[in-house]
Amino acid sequence: MSQDKVSLLRDPTAGVSVSPDSRSYDSVDPPSYSAEHGAQISFVPRRFPQYVAALTATLSALAAGAVLGWTSPILNEIQHGKFHNITVNSNQMGWIGSFVTLGGMTMCIPTGFLCDLIGRKKTLLLLIVPFAIGWSLILFAKSIVMIYLGRLITGMAAGASCVAAPLYTSEIAQKEIRGTLGSYFQLMVTIGIIFAYLAGKFLTSMGYTIFCASLPVVFIVLFAFQPETPAFCLRSGLYDDALRALVRLRGPCESNEAELAEIEGTLKESLESSVSISQTFQKKANIKAFVIAFSLMFFQQFSGINAIILYSSDIFASAGSNLDANTAAIIVGAFQAVATFVSSLMIDKLGRKILLLTSSIVMAFSTLVLAIYFTLKYRTAIDGAVLHEIGFIPIVSLCLFVVVFSIGLGPIPWMISSEIFTPEIKSIASSGAGTFNWFLAFLVTKFYLQVNECVGQDSTFYAFSILSLLGGVFVYFVVPETKGKTVEQVQAELER
C-alpha cells in the first residue's frame, strides 16, 4: 500500500471524487464518510451488521446440518421401502448415511483454494449448485444409486461450508467478538439438525425432503446482500472495495483505517513467512501441533457423535424408550443446540483444556451407561417390565452426551487449529485436519450399523466409551491451554 493512500485513509473526509472504477484509496469517498451526504463518523464500530453477516453466512451450516440429520427421522421408512419404493438393507443404509461424510472429505482442501481464488463470498454462494443437484437427485430418485449420488453431492456442499463459512466469519469480525461469531457455525449445524428432526416428525417423507432442500435457497437469498471480507479484497488489490466492506460491517468509524492497515500488515507478514512443507516438519512445535489437531479430530469422531446424530431415532427405538423415537431425537438435538450456544459463552472464560477434559470424561461415562443398558436388554434375562421402567436411561445418557460434547469436544478441535498453528501453515493444516475429520466420520457412519450386527450394540458403545476416556488422558498430558495466549506463546510451549 502506498504512503499517499494510507495518509488519505487517515483523513477519510479528504477523499477526492474520481471515476468509480478506479481501484485506489484516492477514489474512495464513500457516502458514509462524506460530509456532503450528512454522515457522521463514530468512535465505536457497530456490531449489529457483523452479527447479521455472520448469521446469514452460517445459514450454509444450517443447510449442512439438515443434510446430516436427514436420515434419522425417516430411517425406518427408507429401510422398509417407503421412500420412492426403494428397499435397502443395513449395508446400503450405511452407505446412505456415510456418503455425506465421504463427500465432505473430498471438499475441504479444494474449498480452501477456491476461497483464495474467487473469494469467500462467491465460494459460499456457489454452494447452491451442489446443494441443488444433490437434493434433486434424492427427490427424484429412481434407484439406490441416485440416492447415493445425491447424498455424496449434498455432502460435498456441507464439507465446503465447513471451510468457507468459518473463514468468512473470522475475517469480518472485529477482535472483541471474533470468538462469539466463530461459534455460530457449530450452533447453526445443530439448529439445522433440529429442523430436520422436527420436519421429519410432522411431514411426509417427501414433504420433509423438500423442506430440507429449501434451506440452501433461504441461505442464498439472505446471504447474497452481504459484502466480501475486507481481507480478501486486500489480497486481491481492491483497496477501495476493502474499505467499503469495512464501512458496511463497522459503520463509518474512525478505527476503520487503522484496522485496514493492520489487516494488510498481517497479510504481508503471512506472505513473507511462508515456508515449504519440509521446513515445516523440521520444527518440533509444528509436529506436536499436527499431532494435537489430528488426534483431537480422531477422539471427536470416535466418541460416536455422528452415529448418534444420524441414527438417533434407531438407537431410541432399539432401547425401547417410552417416548416416540423421533420425539426423543428432537430432545437430543435441542439439548445439543442449547449446549452449543452456552459453550460460546464459556470457552473464553473457563479455557479450552478444562472443557475438553470434562467433555471427554463425561462422554465416556454416558456411553458406558448406554452400553450397560444394551447389555441388560440383549445379553441378560432381565424382565421386560423392568426394561420398560428404565427406558428413560437412553434419553438421559444421550442428552448428557450431546451436552458435554457440545461444550468441549465438539467445537474446540475446530477452534484450536487456529490457535496452535503459525499463520504460514494454518490454512493447509486446518484443511488437512478437516479432511481427516470427515474421513473418520465416514468410517463411523458407514460401519456403525454393520458393527452393531456383528458385535452387538452394547459392544459398539463400550468401544466409544473407552476411546472417549483415552481422549481425556491425551488432553490431560498433551494438549496445552491456549486461552489468552498468542500463537507465539503456544508455539514456545510446544517446543519444550
Would you write up a description of this structure?
The chain has 496 residues and is mainly α. The chain has 2 domains: 44-226, Up-down Bundle (Growth Hormone, Chain: A); 279-496, Up-down Bundle (Growth Hormone, Chain: A). 75% of the residues lie in helices and 0% in strands. The protein is built from 25 helices and no strands. The protein has helices at 3-10, 48-57, 59-69, 75-79, 90-118, 120-125, 128-139, 144-172, 178-182, 184-202, 205-223, 230-235, 239-250, 256-272, 277-280, 284-301, 305-319, 325-350, 352-379, 384-389, 392-407, 412-420, 423-455, 457-478, 487-495. Helix 5 (90-118) runs antiparallel to helix 23, helix 19 (352-379) packs antiparallel against helix 21 (392-407) and helix 23 (423-455) runs antiparallel to helix 24 (457-478). The longest helix is centred in the last third of the chain and has 33 residues, at 423-455. The chain is globular and about 70 Å long. Residues 1-39 have low confidence and may be disordered.
Secondary structure topology:
Layout: H1 3-10, H2 48-57, H3 59-69, H4 75-79, H5 90-118, H6 120-125, H7 128-139, H8 144-172, H9 178-182, H10 184-202, H11 205-223, H12 230-235, H13 239-250, H14 256-272, H15 277-280, H16 284-301, H17 305-319, H18 325-350, H19 352-379, H20 384-389, H21 392-407, H22 412-420, H23 423-455, H24 457-478, H25 487-495
List its traits.
25 helices, mainly alpha, 2 domains, Growth Hormone, Chain: A, 496 residues, disordered N terminus
Brief sketch in words of this structure:
The protein is mainly α. The chain is built from 25 helices and no strands. It has two domains: 44-226, Growth Hormone, Chain: A (Up-down Bundle); 279-496, Growth Hormone, Chain: A, CATH 1.20.1250.
